[in-house]
Amino acid sequence: MSRGSAVRRTLLLGVLLPLALASCSSSGAAPAPAAGSTSPRGPVAAVCDHVPPGPAAAPAGAVPVDPAVVDDLPTKTKNSPAGTTFWLAPGTHRLSDDEYAQVQPKDGDVYLGAPGAVFDGRKKNRYAFAGPAKDVRLASFTVQGFTAPRDEGVVNHDSAPGWVIQHLTVQDNDGAGLMAGPKQQILDSCLRRNGQYGLNAYSGSAAVTGLVLRGTEVTGNNTANWEAKVPECGCTGGMKFWAVDGADVVGNWIHDNRGTGLWADTNNNDFLIEGNLIENNDSAAIIYETSYNAVIRNNTFRRNNLPDGRAHADRGDPFPSATIYLSESGGEPRLKARTSNLEISGNLLQDNWNGVILWENADRFCNSPANTSSGSCTKLVPNVSTCSAPGIAKKPLYGDCRWKTQRVVVQHNQFTLNSKALGCEEVCGRTGVLSNFGSYPDWSPYQGAVIQQAITFQQDNSWHDNAYAGPWTFVAKEMSNIIGIGEWQSAPYRQDANSSYKPNGG
């Protein structure tokens, strides 16, 4: 769902080495990554112009596919047994003019491209590869020019399981370049200039599990600018995840997308977001919304959220539009995951518009009209209608009907900001924890300052051992309460113990 609605109504890196950050005190030096840090400073996956080529000749036993023959790829796929390897010869491969012409792989099929192999929809065909086949592999060619509608995808259109996407370029398509299915791997690939998303991870029938995105460049997506077409649709950016249970997003370069870089929305769980360089995205670098249990560590965030943050400020919107934005999301020990917290640690945030914001809309809960994820309930209460009066006012529903921003730990991060260079002065250096004053529906048990009090003082949200360089301020409890480091570290908030603060940089 859109953040606006939630506010108003709500190169492959290989094995990563651990990051050790020196602790700091309020008068000590900023923590610095130890030797071997995996927090990237330069492009970690500059893949799009350097995709390794595929085999120059057909491998033994492979079926060659002729680019001069229209529909050669789907025809040979249909006439071959499951588990066949197909070799796309150099040149541009085409389908017929039928908009629904597509390749329907069989279980275990492999598609390898020769150097210069392109599969082009010519803005005539909707989908490239579709159907339920499992364990399909696509490697070393370009997929472009397909016209999937909004919220649909070009490659793995039906979110089939076990697909491996490697050394693939998926570019200049409408809709999403890729859909993701269970146990899908996206490795060393290029997802660029697609109309809506580079990647859309969604399956209507069951949760997507065990997803891996590694060593991939995700850039320039949402060329159709869907947020302008459908205001507050929450349907734009580099990638979007819905109801994914278990995802590793490691060592990617996510940059220059129109909208959010990485957006996990509604009942996602167990994410590892590590060792990525996320920069120059128009909106937040990461939104983790109505979701659970994640580790966000050892990433570098640069110059994210500048257009969106500036637009918020220009229209007088007081909400602190964030670079890492947690909306009704936190740790939940009752769900199986690699952590029972939501950990933000060891990251470098440099010259972004605002920092980490923890938000929980008092009026947004399962079965509330303010829930922009309409029809969805928490993972703890699957039946939406259960969350109604009078039962919701008592345990366990009182707690379980809410997506809670709880058990969030923000530690050992570096926040640096040159606000004068960005031209934002005092409005782009905010981080904090807050909620709104609960007001509706009239049967809500969360009215008044109940949730403001809970997210700020009662839900185990903690900052410590961070380093701030630049004119940072802190938002506590509610959006008009903007305070300095002294108040933030003192009672009643008592946040950022052992953290350093250098308002003039350093």
TrEMBL record:
Pfam families: Beta_helix. Residues 159-313 form the Carbohydrate-binding/sugar hydrolysis domain. The keyword Signal applies. Residues 28-40 have a biased composition (Low complexity). Residues 1-29 form the signal peptide. Residues 28-48 are annotated as: Disordered. Keywords: Repeat, Signal. This is Right-handed parallel beta-helix repeat-containing protein.
